[in-house]
């Protein structure tokens, strides 16, 4: 057994209503779990001491990322900054580059991206496939993702690949047939880009068929929905008890009504609106309506090539009407709930020691000092 006493905590965020935080808080981590929380002057002895000298909070949970890819779409991003529109068509470029990459190269790219996330305070990350879109390339994407996380998502229904452009129904059958049966071995989740506003993505009915097949194969459900315009994604997610509907850029009052009281979290991805020059969703309205909101990066080569949750928090506060406190909760506890992980995004006795420290006196600085590398993993 080895224990570490963490002191010098200027602010401790636990996200646990039952944990009382004293004025000069300290905590002890024993064998990877929080074993004691209390006042520093009453702390029991521990093997080592670690002065945090800053704000301690649960590690960020990045519940939406597409890290398994090769290729570069910086030119596409640059065109959008002067008016080009995003419609998902650029995904084909990444599929081509990803299929051409060796296993070693893809693994190294994912490893570097996960390391970049961890340097900025992220703990658990969800990773999707979706740039293979044939059986061997989807399976190796999932295998590589599984080397870095248990939160692996099968996204064979990202877009209809070029070789199936004249046979959409054939591609849906292919995804829910052989590809899904083999993918289910590596993935916990199935996701679908439900977006009738894109010619490349999937309609509500196609999405329903894919998600139900995923559930029958033992996977749990997530949905990319309501990104490019109003559509069926959010209500479908609620109807099928998906853990999360992600993007939520265009939500109607009926969508919000459906989300209220449901077990489906609305995950906002502010880096996507930033990188596609799109209007930001109204997170204030979601929260005020009683919807559970999560924040994630959506790190991917097309709509947001950023691994930084602190950046997402700054955007959510500046552009989406969230308070810093709400945004930090959404990027920790909210995103944990969107993965149905009750053990994450919280600091309490018994929880895993997934801890982040901010080089700042309190969490408000995450929004107040945008772009400054304040966050890092504590252990
Ligand atoms: N919307 C669908 N998928 C990604 C974008 C993928 C890409 O453009 O490469 C997203 O979450 O935004
Ligand atoms: Zn995505």
TrEMBL record:
Pathway membership, UniProt: Amino-acid degradation; L-histidine degradation into L-glutamate; N-formimidoyl-L-glutamate from L-histidine: step 3/3
Binding site for Zn(2+): 64, 66, 224, 298
InterPro entries xref list: Amidohydro-rel, HutI, Metal-dep_hydrolase_composite, Metal_Hydrolase
Molecular functions per Gene Ontology: imidazolonepropionase activity; iron ion binding; zinc ion binding
Named cofactor requirement(s): Zn(2+); Fe(3+)
Cellular compartment(s): Cytoplasm
Positions of 4-imidazolone-5-propanoate binding: 73, 131, 158, 227, 303
EC main group: hydrolase
Biological processes, Gene Ontology terms: L-histidine catabolic process to glutamate and formamide; L-histidine catabolic process to glutamate and formate
Binding site residues for Fe(3+): 64, 66, 224, 298
Gene Ontology CC, one term: cytoplasm
Keyword Transferase included in the entry's annotation: no
Function of the molecule: Catalyzes the hydrolytic cleavage of the carbon-nitrogen bond in imidazolone-5-propanoate to yield N-formimidoyl-L-glutamate. It is the third step in the universal histidine degradation pathway.
HAMAP family xrefs: HutI
Protein name: Imidazolonepropionase
Native species: Naumannella halotolerans
Lineage, uppermost ranks: Bacteria, Bacillati, Actinomycetota, Actinomycetes, Propionibacteriales
